[in-house]
Write a structure and sequence with these properties.
By secondary structure, the protein is an alpha/beta fold. The longest helix is centred in the C-terminal third of the chain and has 24 residues. Among the domains are: 108 residues, Rossmann fold (3-Layer(aba) Sandwich), CATH 3.40.50; 129 residues, Transcription Regulator spoIIAA (2-Layer Sandwich), CATH 3.30.750.210; 60 residues, OB fold (Dihydrolipoamide Acetyltransferase, E2P) (Beta Barrel), CATH 2.40.50.140. Helix 11 packs parallel to helix 12. The chain is built from 12 helices and 20 strands. One of its GO terms (cellular component) is cytosol. Its cofactor is [4Fe-4S] cluster. GO terms for molecular function: 4 iron, 4 sulfur cluster binding; aspartic acid methylthiotransferase activity; metal ion binding; protein methylthiotransferase activity.
Length: 462
């Protein structure tokens, strides 16, 4: 049993879980999945296609005929982590195919690792399959290699990420994701809902909706309509969330920009029967208007506070999670203090924070007045200290309350659960250390909170 550290990076997905036991003689592929939940969904899709073609999935290097490394290129530190993972796979296995965001820079990868078999970019599923076919020819067994209806999942059985779009239309100066993944392309609503139905039918109790910009869903399609169960359904995040909420699973929205139409989601979240959790993950990034302008982001922090107040008035149980960057080029002490003051007023429930890093290709690299590393570290520590104090006070106010929790894990000591306010891996936990023996992952039970820490809660079943 462990508690969440305050510096848990919000761009990292849960570790991929591989448990398939290949049949004797079956060609097998290993997978290393790095980066964000969107990349984890890409890994699931690749493995589902390979599994359908008769490949086995190996949980270790030794049992794999080749290894796919799905890379991250979000930060320079993430690129270094990806290169290290490629090197490890080459050392342990020797036959490596690289894909993902860093795959958009094949020359950079081959400069460090010339022995790799192939490189493909993000969400280039067909190219990955072609590379696997060339390295390890398929040998399907028509009676044994049956594909589960829900496909291959790399998360625990009871929750799943549901990707609703690719790409992004924003031009934030610190980010190269649009260069790697392209402009916004929304999946048709009926395709998203069909996938969600299969997941729920397969035992998923929580759908984590992800994209690069969830609230922009359908904008590229001009919010056109698609046929769904005898009627027309609009490709719009409000309509999609409403339909997802009717499937019988928790629906949690991630990466939601605070556009005005986000107000339409709040009544859904306030309705306990809608299935849409009162939870918004919004990447505010900063609060000072000058910093936001240098980031090329909307500079309306004051109006954002008004919007937050309106959301909470309509939905008092709303949980707000966000991420911020400290030490952005040109950030003065006064600008950073504005961020701290804003955080004091906004009272966000869950907060992640990055120290700014240059990323090759990002326009922010050319900005003047880069902040020294020691100042970035000092500001990060001050920011997290304030965020921790806010979290501790908010959790203390929950002592004595009854709430529903979903069980993630059960061991000899306790059941590790999450409330509706907590996304897996990046938020807190609620621990049950008695009366948990009959529980299993995916169970949803009612508890009363009897103790609170800085990031986690403890409770008892009622």
């Amino acid at each position: 049993m462990s508690t969440n550290p305050p510096d848990l990076r919000p761009d990292i997905a849960p570790a991929a879980r591989l448990s398939d036991a290949p049949r004797p003689g079956q060609p097998t592929i290993g997978m290393v999945s790095l980066g964000c939940p969107k990349a984890l969904v890409d890994s699931e899709r690749i493995l589902t296609r390979l599994r359908a073609e008769g490949y086995g999935i190996s949980p270790d290097y030794a049992g794999a005929d080749a290894v796919i490394v799905n890379t991250c290129g979000f930060l320079d530190s993430a690129k270094a982590e990806s290169l290290e993972a490629i090197g490890e796979a080459l050392t342990e296995n020797g036959r490596v195919i690289v894909t993902g965001c860093l795959g958009a820079e094949p020359d950079y990868i081959r400069e460090h690792h010339p022995r790799i078999l192939a490189v493909t970019g993000p969400h280039q599923y067909e190219q990955v399959l072609d590379a696997v076919h060339q390295a390890v020819p398929p040998d399907p067994h028509p009676f044994i290699d049956l594909m589960p209806a829900a496909g291959v999942k790399l998360t625990p059985r009871h929750y799943s990420y549901l990707k609703i779009s690719e790409g992004c239309n924003h031009k934030c100066k610190f980010c190269i994701i649009p260069d790697m993944r392209g402009r916004l392309v929304s999946r048709p609503a009926h395709a998203v809902l069909r996938e969600a139905e299969k997941l729920v039918d397969g035992g998923v109790r929580e759908l984590l909706v992800i994209s690069q910009d969830t609230s922009a869903y359908g904008l590229d399609r001009r919010h056109d309509t698609v046929p769904w169960k005898g009627r027309e359904l609009r490709n719009h995040i409000t309509d999609l969330a409403r339909e997802l909420g009717q499937l019988g699973a928790w629906v949690r929205l991630h990466y939601v920009y605070p556009y005005p139409h986000v107000r339409e989601l709040i009544p859904l979240m306030a309705d306990a029967g809608s299935g849409v959790l009162p939870y918004l993950d919004i990447p505010f990034q900063h609060a000072h208007p000058d910093t936001l302008k240098r980031m090329a982001r909307p500079a309306a922090a004051a109006r954002t506070l008004d919007e937050i107040a309106a959301w909470r008035a309509a939905c008092p149980d709303l949980t707000l999670r966000s991420t911020f960057i400290v030490g952005y080029p040109g950030e003065t002490e006064a600008e950073f203090q504005t961020l701290l003051d804003w955080l004091d007023e906004a009272q966000l429930d869950r907060v992640g924070c990055f120290k700014y890093e240059n990323v090759e290709g990002a326009r922010s690299n050319a900005l003047p007045d880069h902040v020294p590393e020691e100042v970035k570290q000092e500001r990060w520590e001050r920011f997290m200290e304030k965020a921790q104090a806010i979290s501790e006070a908010k959790l203390a106010a929950k002592v004595g309350r009854r709430m529903q929790v979903i069980v993630d894990e059960v061991d000899d000591e306790a059941a590790t659960c999450r409330t509706t306010a907590d996304a897996p891996e990046i938020d807190g936990n609620l621990f049950l250390d008695e009366g948990f023996e009959d529980l299993k992952p995916g169970d949803i039970v009612t508890v009363e909170v009897d103790e609170a820490g800085e990031y986690d809660l403890w409770g008892r079943r009622v």
